[in-house]
Amino acid sequence: MIRRPPRSTPKPSSAASDVYKRQELVCISRGRTVEILRSGLTIFTPEGTVEMIPGDRYSLIDSEGGPVNESMYNSCDVAIIAGKADSTSVLSSIAEDIVSDRGFVVSIQNGIGNAGIIASRVGWERVVGGSTTHSAWRDSDGGVHWTGRGSFSIGSMDGSDPSPIESEFVSLLHESGLNPVWSSDINKEIWSKLMVNVAINPICAIAGIRNGGLLEIPELWSQSLEAMREAESVARASGVDLGAMDIEDYLKKVVTATAVSYTHLRAHETLRYLVCRLLL
């Protein structure tokens, strides 16, 4: 969640460090992750550097800790939901409580149907769809390894242009280095990500290889490509306009960009920490 900056906040600057300092972050999690976040966050960047984020840099809410403190109600302009699908209902309820009337909720979750669950709590007019190709995974000590720089696609579910506050959010993501793209057809982006997950995740999990291994083993690449083509057939049968997408070329670009990643691990779950880090 991104809270409103205090009144004394300086005017925006293009400097990334200023971007980090301007925002007030609220992290929401549960279980062991809450304990990890209390002591801070360690990020291993794609360039090989290590960044330490102190635990007092953000507010922390345990989603299993009961009702949200009333002081948090209506205090956030943007909520980014990046949890597993089975936590969408709980996270949507929390978002409903703490997002301001002018604010909105962004889902960057894998799969389809999450936007509808969120909309049932906050209304479709306050839901923004999202998809990302940044890759990250969390080690056993809680360290987050950002393994691949990608893009951050968001867009209105009805295909409309961004509102002023949504444009501000896109600018913030840009200044933070997340490579945002406003999509006029975010449903297509979400389905495209789903197709990629179908093609990569199960095969890499079974074979125990990094994403890039698919291009090194012809038999696995063939299976991955066939899985994506089957997912494409489902998408088109569901009414999704994929246009003249070159499936093999699209999959090859994603696999190449995330070659060192173990996508089948809990990578997407740890991406929420990466997003928070880049907005700090």
Strand order of the largest sheet: 5-2-1-6-7-8-11-12
Distance between the termini: 11 Å
Count of extended strands: 12
SS element count, helices? 10
Q: Evaluate the radius of gyration.
A: 19 Å
The average pLDDT is 87
Helix content range: 40-55%
Topology record:
Blueprint: E1 2-3, H1 16-22, E2 24-29, H2 31-38, E3 41-44, E4 50-53, E5 58-62, E6 76-81, H3 88-98, E7 99-107, H4 114-122, E8 127-132, E9 135-138, E10 144-148, E11 152-156, H5 164-175, E12 180-182, H6 186-207, H7 213-216, H8 218-237, H9 247-257, H10 267-279
Helix pairs in contact: 3-4, 6-8
Task: Give an overview in words.
- The structure is a single chain.
- This protein is of the alpha/beta class.
- The protein is built from 10 helices and 12 strands.
- It has helices spanning 16-22, 31-38, 88-98, 114-122, 164-175, 186-207, 213-216, 218-237, 247-257, 267-279, and strands spanning 2-3, 24-29, 41-44, 50-53, 58-62, 76-81, 99-107, 127-132, 135-138, 144-148, 152-156, 180-182.
- The strands form 2 sheets. An 8-stranded mixed β-sheet has the order 5-2-1-6-7-8-11-12, sandwiched between helices. A 4-stranded mixed β-sheet has the order 4-3-10-9.
- Helix 3 packs parallel to helix 4 and helix 6 (186-207) runs antiparallel to helix 8 (218-237).
- The longest helix is centred in the last third of the chain and has 22 residues, at 186-207.
- The protein starts with a strand and ends with a helix.
- Mean pLDDT is 87; it is low at 6-21 and 266-271.
